[in-house]
Write a structure and sequence with these properties.
CATH topology: Porin
Order of helices and strands: HEHEEEEEEE
Strand content: over 45%
Distance between the termini: 30 Å
CATH architecture: Beta Barrel
Shape: elongated
Largest sheet: 8 strands, antiparallel, barrel
Number of domains: 1
Radius of gyration: 18 Å
């Protein structure tokens, strides 16, 4: 699992550094009144009590009733997100999520996302978000989702992102660190 987490973090950092290089070229001709509005965001985060955690916990409980070894894996999931602000209110993007709900079973998730920002250019940005996609492992694939009824971004260039009222594959409790460019 540690190898998968490390790979996801290195992937996100590589994309961020390359995207910053592209952003530096694009911002040379930007009017000064648009410089505070940054369209791209990449973030890396961790959440606990995900949908796959619940499935793993229930499966582990059922197996334990019959005297088998506990099969529960690791609590939580790592996510790498990319977002593109279409305008100051609507943002779209993609979420890659890695979890290990059962021992020796890795779960990968790819979810397109739609996000409504209520103060995109401010220091505090409350938001709502809906993600829907597919989760897959060596046994197959299944549809999966994540819904955030209330989230909060704090910061302009390097925001801390908290999903306060949420449920789904990113977890009930989720926090991430982002980079805007």
């Amino acid at each position: 699992m540690h190898k998968g987490i490390l790979t996801a973090i290195l992937f996100a950092l590589g994309i961020t550094s390359q995207a910053n290089a592209w952003g530096a070229e694009d911002n040379t001709n930007t009017p000064s009144n648009e410089s505070s509005f940054k369209r791209h965001t990449i973030s890396v985060g961790y959440g606990i009590l995900t949908l796959s955690d619940f499935v793993g916990l229930i499966g582990s409980a059922i197996i334990s009733i019959f005297g088998e070894d506990d099969s529960f894996g690791t609590l939580g999931a790592v996510s790498v997100d990319y977002g593109y602000k279409v305008n100051e209110v609507f943002e779209t993007g993609l979420v890659f999520n890695y979890a290990m709900p059962l021992k020796n079973e890795q779960l990968y998730t790819i979810m397109p996302r739609a996000k409504l920002n209520f103060n995109a250019t401010g220091f505090f940005n409350p938001f709502m978000e809906l993600d829907g996609g597919v989760a897959f492992n060596e046994n197959g694939a299944a549809p999966i989702f994540h819904a955030t009824l209330l989230g909060l971004e704090m910061g302009r260039d390097t925001p801390i992102i908290l999903n306060l009222l949420s449920f789904g594959q990113r977890g009930i409790f989720y926090a991430s660190l982002g980079f805007k460019f």
